[in-house]
Amino acid sequence: MSERLRRQQFALTRHLRDPNRYPPPPGIEERRLRVYRELLFGSIEGLLAGGFPVVRATLGEAEWRALVRRFYAAHRCATPLFPQVGGEFVEFLQRPRGRVRGAPWLAELAHYEWAEAALLACDDAAPAHCADGDLLDGVPLIAPWAWSLAYRWPVHEIGPELRPRRAPASPSLLLVHRDRDGDVRFARLTPLSYRLLAAVRAQSRSGADHLRALAAEAGAPAESLFAEGRAALAQWRDQGVVLGTVADAASPPPAIARSRP
């Protein structure tokens, strides 16, 4: 590619992304440029509108289009794949250019919506596991298509009728997972169930050891958490959130429960 052609291409793409800031390259009719501008922006806006319908409805059309315009003009995507543009949009909203006055919850709401598409597209294979293993004696295994999420804002409630100005005192703890039929489900989590899910994903130890460790953190007798923890693990296995137990962990080494520093 000649240097002249390269400069012309950069000039054209800069103009198409941000026509108010960059003039078009010479020699191209305005009529043709307008078609390209509308086509390219419309493709990105339509893609994001389909992936973030609640964000769009909550912001309103004018504010939504202005936000997408900033993303289109300022954000340099790390991927050429259209299905991954939603993740790029979420990343953009976490930066100063992506903030919208009066919508401090915007980045979290977008992440909440993006999580559904991300799990629908997840094609990770299930690791080797024992589907009917003992979830207390064995090492529970979380499915790759199940996430525990914590948000400062009540993202599951925000919409055109609710644009909160202050975050509540308690975070919103949510489980998002793909069920056995391939549908994405959301559910509220208690603080205990959220900590248990996070611990099971982070450390390879028996379910009983996880519950003992959580009891030590809370300064409570281990027996007081076992009934709730056992029921939660069993329910998650029924839902496909927990696959079972790690296949080669019939006798996991005992762990020492200690309080967090």
Q: Please bin the fraction of helical residues.
A: 40-55%
Strand content: 5-15%
**Gross CATH architecture of the largest domain:** Alpha-Beta Complex
Number of strands: 6
Shape: elongated
In CATH, the topology of the largest domain is named Outer Surface Protein A, domain 3
Estimated radius of gyration? 24 Å
Main-sheet strand order equals 1-6-2
**Regarding CATH, which class of the largest domain?**
Alpha Beta
Describe this structure in words.
The protein is mostly helical and about 260 residues long. It folds into two domains: about 100 residues, no CATH class; about 120 residues, Outer Surface Protein A, domain 3, CATH 3.90.930.50. The chain has nine helices and six strands, in the order ααααααβββββαααβ. Strands 1-6-2 form a three-stranded antiparallel beta sheet. A three-stranded antiparallel beta sheet has the order 3-4-5, sandwiched between helices. β4 and β5 form a beta hairpin. It is elongated and about 75 Å long. The relative contact order is 0.11. The C terminus is likely disordered.
Give the helices and strands, then pairings.
Layout: H1 3-17, H2 30-51, H3 53-59, H4 61-74, H5 85-93, H6 106-121, E1 129-130, E2 140-142, E3 146-151, E4 172-178, E5 184-188, H7 191-202, H8 207-218, H9 223-239, E6 242-246
Antiparallel strand pairs: 1-6, 2-6, 3-4, 4-5
Helix pairs in contact: 2-4, 3-4, 5-6, 7-8, 8-9
